[in-house]
Amino acid sequence: MTPEAIEGGPIAIVRDGDRIFIDAEANTITLDLSEEEIKSRFDNWQKPEARYTRGVLAKYAATVTSASEGAVTDKYV
């Protein structure tokens, strides 16, 4: 699912207890919230701080591409 939560995609505003409908035939995922609630959540959303700032996980996070691009680390090599 892209864009991913870390990039501010819709999955970033999903909370425990929210209803999500998946229609495999129509290829859709729907979050069961009013437009007002969705707007409110996006207005209050902030990109989280990086959990890792040093070491191999920080290097991985800095170089890996998004899922829509294959989640690879050799794109820029």
Written description of the protein model:
The chain has 77 residues and is α+β, with helices and mostly antiparallel strands. The protein has two domains: 1-46, no CATH class; 49-77, no CATH class. It is 25% helix and 10% strand. The chain contains two helices and two strands. A two-stranded antiparallel sheet has the order 1-2. 1% of the residues are buried.
In summary, what is this structure?
The protein has 77 residues and is an alpha+beta fold.
Sum up the structure in keywords:
single chain; 77 residues; alpha+beta; two-stranded antiparallel sheet; 2 strands; globular
Q: What composes the largest sheet?
A: 2 strands, antiparallel
Placed side by side, the strands forming the largest sheet appear as: 1-2
**Assembly state:** single chain
Task: Give the SSE string.
Answer: EEHH
Shape: globular
Distance between the termini: 25 Å
Tally of DSSP helical segments: 2
Q: Which percent range fits the helix content?
A: 10-25%
